[in-house]
Each structure stands twice: as C-alpha cells, then as structure tokens.
C-alpha cells in the first residue's frame, strides 16, 4: 500500500543505480517487463538500506548485552569478541553487593517516584484539559495562554532557582521533591485538550439532560474514551521520570534511599571506571523496565508519535 | 451564541476553576515562581541583595568559559540537529517504500535508542570507545593501528558527543517525518505525474513544501533540546579537553555552588531562555520565508 503512494519519487536517484547491478542491458526486453524488473530491484534496494540502517542503529545496544556478561579481564581485552569467551555473572553479582548503594532500592525508589508522578500528572492535566476543552468561564483565554507560556520556559532557566524553592518548601531530599515539580505539564494539557476537542459534543449532551454533573461526565464519559492518549502521555511521563538525571542529582543529597537510577549509574560510572562491566550490567538492568513497557505498549507509542507531529 | 445569556454560558465556571486549579497551581509554584525568582535575582547583588542593574549579565558575558560553552553548544547542537533532520527525512523516504511488515520491524529497531537516557547512551558509547580495549581500539588493533583517545584527541571529542546525540534522536524524528509523509495527499503526486513531473521535481515541489510544518516542529524541538545539551558531554568528555566541549548547562550547574557570584549564574540561565527563543524565532522566520517564495 505504502509503496504506491507516490512518495517513492523522493528517493528515485538512489534506486536508479540499482538495475545496473543485474548486469544485463535491458534494451531487448519489453518496456513493461523492464519496468517491473526495475521496480523489483528498487524494492530490494530499499529493503537493503532499511535493514542496514536498522542494524547499525541497534548495534550499540546489541553490543552492550553480551559485554555485561564478560568478566573483568575479558571486557577490554584485545581483540574484542562479541560473545563472552567465559560467561560470567560477576558483574551482576557486584551490582547487588555495592557497599554504598542498594541497587534494588534504587530501582524501587525510581519506580515509586515515576508511577506516582504518572498518576498525579494524568489526573491534574486531564482535569485542566477538560475544562479548557469543554467549559466556558471568564478568563479562559488568558489562563490557557498562561499554561502554554510555561512550555517556552527552558528547564535550565528555572533549574537553579527551583532548587532554592524546593528547599524553602522543605522538599529537598524527599520523595515529593522528586515527584511534584514535573507533574503539571503544558504539553500534556495541550495534548489532552486537542483529544477532547475531537470528541463530538453529542456524547455528553444526553448526560447533561439526565442531570449529570460536569465532573460526572468527565469521569464516566471522557476517561473511558481516553485510554489511548492516557497510555501515550502516561508512558512518556514515566520515561521522563525514569530517565531523569539532573534533578535527582541536585535535590537528593543526603537521603540516599531516594536516589534515582540515572543518578546511581552516573555515580557508578565515576567509581567503577576500572571495573566497567559492573556499570554496563547496572545500565542493562536499568533498561529492563522501559523496554518491557515499550514492548507491551508499542502500538500506542507508535500511534502517539504519529499524532504528536500534527499540530 | 449571542442569544445565550452570560449566566448560562458560564454556569459551570466554578467547576471549571476547580478543575484547572491543581495543574495551574502547580505550574505557578514550580515554573513561574522559579522564573520570577531567576529574573529578580539576576538584577540583585549575590551577597547584599542590593539592586545591581546589569552587573550580573555583564559578569557572565565576560566569563570566557561561559562564552566558550555557548560557542560549543551552538556548533554541536546545530550539527546534531541538521544531521537528525536530514538523515531522518532521507530515511523516512526509505521507510515509505518498504512494505508494512518490514517497515514495522525497522521502525521498532530505530526507535529503541529513544528509550535510553543520555546517561545510559553515554555508558554504551563509553564501553565501545574505551581507550584500553573498547570495540574501536580493538578494530584499530586488528589493523595494527595505535589506540585513539576519543575524549581528548583532535576533533574526536566533538564527534563522539554529536554521534550519540544524533543516535538518541534519529529514530523518533524519522518516525515523526514518516507520519508526515503519509499525510501528504496522494492526489498531489498523481496530478504532478500527469503533468510529467519527475521524481526530483516532485520531491522539491510537493514533498518538501508539504513537510514544512514538520520541519519547523522538529527544528524547534531539537534546538531547544540541543542548546540544553548536558548529559552526553558530562559523561563522555566532562566538558574537556580544557572546556572545548563544555556546554552552558554543564557550566551553570558546575559553577552554581562555586566562587562566582550566584546571581551571575542565574543571569546566565536566564540568557539561555532568550537564546533559545531567538533561535526558534529565526528557525520560524527562515522556514516560513521559504514557504512564501514557493507560493
């Protein structure tokens, strides 16, 4: 289907070189057959390019996996082998036996922070999006403008004063200090508002006639219709928290039980330079949850990317 | 509309305010308050709190390392952004020519790096770049060549910041552009084909103009992210050798608790907002003006 949509034209120059590879001058053949062969060659060319690029892009991740199972002496021995000569679980064992870090606690803490943030952010951003999409109230335009304005304030600009603020609120070194600052998000409100605007008003008209409250309509009608955007925004919020390095590093200083996983990986990267397999093994373990989430919700995520481009 | 009484239109206003309150309240506390604090404090003296006019801005703008970091990030983020957009656009054009099954697999594979943080990405590249015996040293060794210290020698530090940064964004942005290509109405191409337009002509006069909004979106997202580049330089080069790859965020974070006046650092952070806004403005201007030339 996609092959015929005419966009093929864009990459013709690359494809044109390919028929020559068949080595036969096409002059004696019927034009229709020549066209067919050319198309086939182009198709093979595209598959080759696609496969090559895909393999090249995943290669670094693929290289990392067996490396985590190489022992200390083998990891940087010359020449490198792709698979470990001697399969070893030492790196993983060492990750769990670090004297200053409990890696499982770190994973648990990060999971708790990310999941709480996902829950709070879905609730507050969807509520605001519903009001902006469906209700009329004085000051709606300026208030929405204010929300959108926050999208244009880069993190670095407010990062340092945010630390001061969080410290004034006595949230430094706490769970809530990690969760709350990123929970409200203009982009998420915008995304849900766009989705709600696309739902026909007839959906709630009957409910209004039945005397349903606006909150009731939101909970009973809009939430069940919003599973797709909720998964999309939920995953992206989760990934944002899971992968966050700078904020935890600057705010979790003494209370190490709330150290987040990227923060710990950076600490390990500094302290285990001579035993890098441990760092690689820890990084690999930090990938398990994101990759599992991606595998489970892949369809939603791909859909989300297709929507996010349209503004 | 006009027939509706104000009272009727606004009958749910208190519900609405209540629904907005949590999100807006948190934006006010965690975004606007620190912003106002940054603005106010960048005009005050760091120790006495007296009004100092533009002192802090002058101070930070005369800091050679901060200026160097701005130059570094301009170079590295411009190259990364252009690489992502160009390679992404080319590869999106490859993807539309694949059948659904093949392109489905390819899409998943190229998307994977997007799941990784800058920290994990850097760990993966540090593993391959290890001077003593990483993959690249091993390849050089096989050819009888000496090892290269990628974090310090020649232009390599830039290369090995740009490549991981490109790698993280390539797949995602390719998929956005791919979605954009599928949104161009087929009839445009059919009409062009009837007029005898060749592949190159169709690319220049149909595909690229119709993708303009996607290019703007990508460029704005990528420059805002690129100018705040931080984790990859921190991990791969620590900003070295001698500040050659340091970035503004790296500089500001490292100096916030140092000897420099704290409010000058805040002034620097505030200037990053202006820089990003200006770059976005120019991106918008340039891409838009090309559009009007086409018309």
Can you give a write-up of this model?
The complex is a heterodimer of chains A (311) and B (295). Chain A has helices at 12-16, 31-67, 72-75, 90-96, 103-134, 140-149, 155-168, 175-179, 186-197, 202-209, 214-225, 227-242, 246-251, 261-271, 276-308. By secondary structure, chain A is an all-alpha fold. Chain A has 2 domains: 2-67; 93-308, MetI-like fold (Orthogonal Bundle). The two termini of chain A are 26 Å apart. Chain B is mainly α and 295 residues long. In chain B, helix 4 crosses helix 8 and helix 13 packs antiparallel against helix 14. At the A-B interface, helix 2, helix 5, helix 6, helix 7 and helix 11 of A face helix 2, helix 4, helix 5, helix 6 and helix 7 of B.
Give the class-level CATH name of the largest domain in chain A. Answer: Mainly Alpha
Radius of gyration of chain A: 26 Å
**Helical content of chain A (DSSP H or I, runs of 4+):** 55-70%
Assess the beta-strand content of chain B as a share of residues: under 5%
**What is the level 1 CATH name of chain B?**
Mainly Alpha
How far is the first residue's CA from the last residue's CA of chain A? 26 Å
Structure summarized in a few sentences:
The complex is a heterodimer of chains A (311) and B (295). Chain A has 15 helices and no strands. With 311 residues, chain A is mainly alpha-helical.
